[in-house]
């Protein structure tokens, strides 16, 4: 009887794996690039934008994907092209997102310049409309604001900093900022990230990457977040930050809302489902409102470090894939990446 149960379990596992791998055939190439994309975002009209990961190339920082090609956005004059960083140019762009007003927001970590900035663009005019510099007291040099969530309704931005694990809160109207840090939910779990049977290293030791993906509920009242090296997905009421509540009050309000895979990116859709880039399983994993985890798409060859996932206006889901664990920051040696790097899309 035990052997029969084991055989049945094995068959179910194999069938599930085969189904997930077959789903990988649904991945359609949006762009094949010789430099690593960071994050991808899609406008209300379906225009596709991507940052270039600062752990890869220092040529371009922000691009629009046009006919499968990465074009400097909004123009070549903003790109660094390996030159010295300056206030007038981009430095280390990474997280990007459209708000509900179709305005594009991009984090600039300022890894060379030493200044963290948040840029906003009116894509109808291809024009910069905001360039907000975060104060050194909140975001000193070395801050790694990799992801951002925008509340256009109340005028707030929430940035996740993995270097000094915390959430940076920016009032977009007054430009006042605060940092929330110190809570265990912001920290990496003490678990190895194993990809293709190998422990992933970062900075010369087993990776322990803290808070990374951060999202907002559709009504902008709940912030969701979790560590890259972590299997827990947390929530906290955004109202507490808007009203300037104490760190203690915010800490007491943080709740675990479900489990997640080790992930670099996440999105929360309009109905409350969460989608994660599943680094260890080369997949996109969905966590529905009941907390159930399912594999949406999986491909061991194509999804080598899916960096972020983004939902377009037409139901397509977009994924940037950049083999980031083969970059020098992870390998501690020369770049072991094998271009091209891809932006894919698929129908869930």
TrEMBL record:
Broad class of where this protein is predominantly found: secreted
Keyword Signal tagged: yes
InterPro entries per the UniProt record, alphabetical: 6-blade_b-propeller_TolB-like, MRJP/yellow-related
Keywords annotated in UniProt: Secreted, Signal
Protein name, per record: Major royal jelly protein
Coiled coil start-end: none
Keyword Secreted: yes
GO cellular component terms, A-Z: extracellular region
Native species: Flavobacterium sp. CFS9
Secretion signal span: 1-20
SUPFAM superfamilies assigned to the protein according to its UniProt record, in alphabetical order: NHL repeat
Localization annotation: Secreted
């Amino acid at each position: 009887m035990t052997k029969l149960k084991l055989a049945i379990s094995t068959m179910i596992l194999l069938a599930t794996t085969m189904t997930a791998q077959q789903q990988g055939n649904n991945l359609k190439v949006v762009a094949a690039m010789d430099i690593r994309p960071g994050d991808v975002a899609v406008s209300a009209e379906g225009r596709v934008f991507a940052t270039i990961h600062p752990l890869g190339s220092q040529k371009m920082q922000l691009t629009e994907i046009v006919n499968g090609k990465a074009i400097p956005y909004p123009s070549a004059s903003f790109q660094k092209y390996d030159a010295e960083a300056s206030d007038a140019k981009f430095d280390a762009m990474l997280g990007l997102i459209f708000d509900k007003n179709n305005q594009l927001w991009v984090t600039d970590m300022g890894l060379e310049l030493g200044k963290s900035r948040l840029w906003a663009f009116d894509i109808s005019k291809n024009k910069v409309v905001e360039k907000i510099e975060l104060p050194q007291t909140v975001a000193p040099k070395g801050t790694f604001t990799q992801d951002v969530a925008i509340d256009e309704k109340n005028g707030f931005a929430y940035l996740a900093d993995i270097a000094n694990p915390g959430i940076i809160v920016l009032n977009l109207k007054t430009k006042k900022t605060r940092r929330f840090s110190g809570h265990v939910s912001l920290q990496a779990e003490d678990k190895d990230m194993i990809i293709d049977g190998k422990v992933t290293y970062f900075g010369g030791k087993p990776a322990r990457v803290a808070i990374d993906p951060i999202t907002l509920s559709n009504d902008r009242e709940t912030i969701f977040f979790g560590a890259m090296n972590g299997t827990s997905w947390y929530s906290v009421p955004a109202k507490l930050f808007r009203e300037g509540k104490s760190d203690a009050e915010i800490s007491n309000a943080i709740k675990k809302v479900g489990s997640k895979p080790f992930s670099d990116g996440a999105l929360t859709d309009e109905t409350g489902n969460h989608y994660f880039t599943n680094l260890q399983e080369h997949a996109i994993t969905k966590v529905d409102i009941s907390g159930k985890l399912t594999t949406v798409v999986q491909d061991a060859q194509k999804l080598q470090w899916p960096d972020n996932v983004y939902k377009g206006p037409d139901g397509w889901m977009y994924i940037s894939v950049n083999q980031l664990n083969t970059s020098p920051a992870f390998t501690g040696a020369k770049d072991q990446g094998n271009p091209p790097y891809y932006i894919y899309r698929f129908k869930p």
